[in-house]
Amino acid sequence: MGSRIARRLVEAGHEVVVWNRTAEKAAPLVEAGAVGAATPAEAAARAEAVLTMVANPAALRDVTEGEAGIAAGVGEGTTVIEMSTVGPEAVRRLASALGERVGLLDAPVLGSRAEAESGTLKIFVGGPPELVERWTPLLSVLGSPLHVGEVGAGAAAKLVANTTLGGTIGLLGEALALGEGLGLSREKTFEVLAATPLAAQAERRRESIESGEYPPRFALYLARKDAELVVAAAREAGVDLRLTEAARTWLAEAEDAGLGDRDYSAVLAWIPGAEP
Predict the structure, then answer these.
(1) Crossing angle of helices 220-237/242-254, nearest 10°?
(2) What pLDDT does residue 273 have?
(3) DSSP strand E in 198-249: where?
(4) Chain centre to alpha carbon of residue 181
(5) C-alpha 144: how far from its chain's center?
(6) What is the β-pairing status of strands 103-106 and 79-82?
(7) What is the pLDDT of residue 28?
(8) Residue 163: which residues within 8 A CB-CB, separation 6 or more?
(9) Cβ(91)–Cβ(65) under 8 Å?
(10) CB 50 within 8 Å of CB 74
(11) pLDDT at 97
(12) For residue 144, what are the β-bridge partners?
């Protein structure tokens, strides 16, 4: 996702400085016109806006904290735009590391690789209105920004959105499993699902289900990570999310079974064969 976002910005004519923990992954961006940096601190020191897109809260700490981290290199008046799905707690920690001299927006995205490449991501933005206004033209290169509140609100909004992803795919898997268990043919089960609120999802996933191929658009291990973030945030807020907790267990089992690098919809291959 991060490389696709960087390429969009390069192609839109922005001066882009890039850093990746795996240097080889940044090389194509440098060839496309970006400038490589040796550390996150160096990249931050050369930027007006610093965008982060990493896998999880631990990775965010790694690139933002320490002597070579973004917080050490970023200049006064620069804005850090955190675009990963890391949850409100990680955003609060980032705000503390940056301090008041640096602006912060949390702007996680809804969408996958194709949306990043085409600039059609949904972007949930948390932060002060003046900073949101300042950086909306930049974010609009990547998709459609929606200001949802103060810093941390973007992370919260993304978790709300992701409850629907895990819940929907888990419910579809259980519906398919029930049809099989009650003796319906797969064909008839899909005909039944076509008459339900899951019709679009069932049709979208049918080819993968029948072929057994789940090429990754959104890796299952990341979906599991997001579900863990949702459950943790809900517990901290005192919110009972029974369905989401159940969806989290399906994703966890599927990852533990070796499906983590496949698309998160590969959980549909796991649920029907799971032991009760």
Answers:
(1) 150
(2) 87
(3) none
(4) 34
(5) 15
(6) parallel
(7) 95
(8) 230, 241, 244
(9) no
(10) yes
(11) 96
(12) 122
Q: Which residue has the tokens 């850090």?
A: 80
pTM: 0.94
pLDDT digits (tens, 9 = 90+) for 8-29: 999 999 999 999 988 899 999 9
For the stretch 190-238, pLDDT in tens is: 999 999 999 999 999 999 999 999 999 999 999 999 999 999 999 999 9
Contacts of 94 (CB under 8 A, 6+ apart): 60, 64, 80, 82, 104, 106
CA separation (Å) from 152 to 19, 64, 125, 174, 187?
25, 17, 9, 33, 45
What would the mean pLDDT of 39-45 be, rounded to a whole number? 97
Q: Please choose, from the candidates 194, 150, 166, the residue with its C-alpha nearest in 3D space to the C-alpha of residue 255.
A: 166
Residue whose pair of structure tokens reads 């998160």 in the numeric block: 264
Contact 139, 119 (CB under 8 A): no
Cα angle 100, 102, 105; round to 5: 105
Per-residue pLDDT band at 274 (split at 50, 70, 90): confident
What does the H/E/C string look like for 224-254? HHHHHHHHHHHHHHCCCCHHHHHHHHHHHHH
Angle between helices 242-254 and 153-181 (to 10 degrees): 70
